[in-house]
Amino acid sequence: MSNSVWRVKPVSAFEAEMKKSELKRVLTKWGLTSLGIGAIIGGGIFTLTGIAAHDYAGPALALSFVIAGVGCLFASLCYAEFASVLPVEGSAYAYAYGTVGELFAWFIGWNLILEYMMGATTVAVAWSGYFVKLLHLFGIDFPIWLCNDFVTATEKCEALGLAAPSFAFNLPAFIITWIVTAILVKGIKEAASTNNIIVVVKIAVVLFVILVGAFFINTQNWTPFIPEQVPVIGENGEATGAFKFGFGGVLTAATIVFFAYIGFDAVSTQAGEAINPKKDVPFAIVASLIICTILYILVSLVLTGMVKYDQLDKAAPVASAFSGIGINWAVFIITIAATAGLTSVMLVMMLGQTRIFLGMAKDGLLPRGMFATLHTKFKTPYKSTILVGLIISIVASVTPIDKVSEMCSMGTLLAFAMVCVAVMILRYKKPELERPYRTPAVYLVGTLGVAFNIFLMCFVRPDTWIAFMIWGVLGILVYFIYSKNRSNLQREHDNANTGSLDDIAKK
To answer: Within a 10 A sphere around the Cβ of 257, how many other Cβ atoms?
Structure first.
């Protein structure tokens, strides 16, 4: 066994782990698809449409969703092949470990942590916004300082002419995180059942928004479809070099809404709990992406047609669009559905995060006692679930939503690009492997997937890049300080060398 950081985990090792897995296999083809839809429909429609349309794309938000959807399609086809070959928990991390090498896999896993953690945090903050709006509809008002982070609370108080608070904490975001954590500790069957109910409600309301909202579209709100490009002015009053609106703004909006598509990625993390993973996971990945992309495009066109893009509420755009045209009764339905819908997004993202940790811990790259220990009764990785809940609840309580959503997009874009690279490498190095699903025109699709995702990364804001690079450097340090010398492959290498020396000594 090699001592190199590019050592590869044998496919036979994955197959052996699948046979020994204690996770309950209860998820069907449509159960997996429902999990994908549960993760995809939520933050993208109910929250990020407001930020992306208001600040960057205008009515061309629909084009941003098309761009992001195409980029995801390339990646999803690559994910689907991997899921049929290696139907294990760990998603892109496991795929890379079996093809490219340990360091590459670690870096993907490290970025998946960023993707899912920041994704769930973004949704927790969004959930808080809709929950507070729901309470307001029933005449109950939360204090500003108790349902926002300090930065957002200060901005809202200044806008209302109130004194800035000395303390702020997003209590609803904190509470919903722990409710979801409790459901996940209880078990995958309970989590999936809860998700299925919410998904039905979400799709019904999304169709309601599309069908009813279509009657109130004013086509003049789509003019100009792509607003004129304007430079972004920094806090010092000087241009930052970035732009809002124009085609550059459309691309920036695509990077923002991209995070909403990681639901199909979350499907692949549930392979260890699927009844027939080699066939059902690829189906669910592609099906959930196609269904949700169509819904996203239609909703974005309806919203920007109902209300001028610069009048959309960035926190609750769908509800604000209907209240803006006087259909206040619909606001109740939408707000209730959004509150419930965002709960299922959190559920799937946190579920995916703990399964990534489980895969990495099984390989020795993370402490097994914390991340791979299963509950004796529920058969869930309860310790890591509680740890994830703790981190997300704290970050969601004190961080503005736009900061965490862009960090999530960076992790997603890089992970997708790496998967596209890895599937081409595996096809070249292991052409003999059984592939129940084969990516069509794999070298073309894979190359386009890499190029597309890296291209979108170029339009992420500079401060997000800085934070992302700091996260990446931290991950490399953790690998060389802790993970490299504790991985299962390293131990096998050390044992092999020790064994050969003992044989020499005996002779």
So the answer is: 29
CATH class of 22-499: mainly alpha
pTM score:
0.80
- pLDDT for 34-72, tens place per residue? 878 877 887 667 777 888 898 889 999 999 999 988 888
Domain boundaries along the sequence of the chain: 22-499
Tokens, residue 172: 């609803």
Please name every residue paired with 244 in a beta bridge, in sequence order, or none if there are none: 230
**What contacts 421, CB < 8 A, 6 or more positions away?**
100, 446, 450
Angle 59-60-63 from CA coordinates, rounded to 5°:
140
Provide the residue count of the chain: 507
How far is it, in rounded angstroms, from Cα 8 to Cα 97?
6
Q: What is the pLDDT of residues 439-484, one digit of tens each?
A: 999 999 999 999 988 887 887 778 888 888 999 999 999 999 999 9
User: Dmax over Cα atoms in the chain, in whole Å?
Assistant: 90
Contact indicator for 351, 191 with CB cutoff of 8 Å: yes
Q: Residue 341: which residues within 8 A CB-CB, separation 6 or more?
A: 41, 42, 46, 198, 201, 202, 205
Distance CA 444, CA 57 (A): 29
| Residue 227 token pair | 């607003």
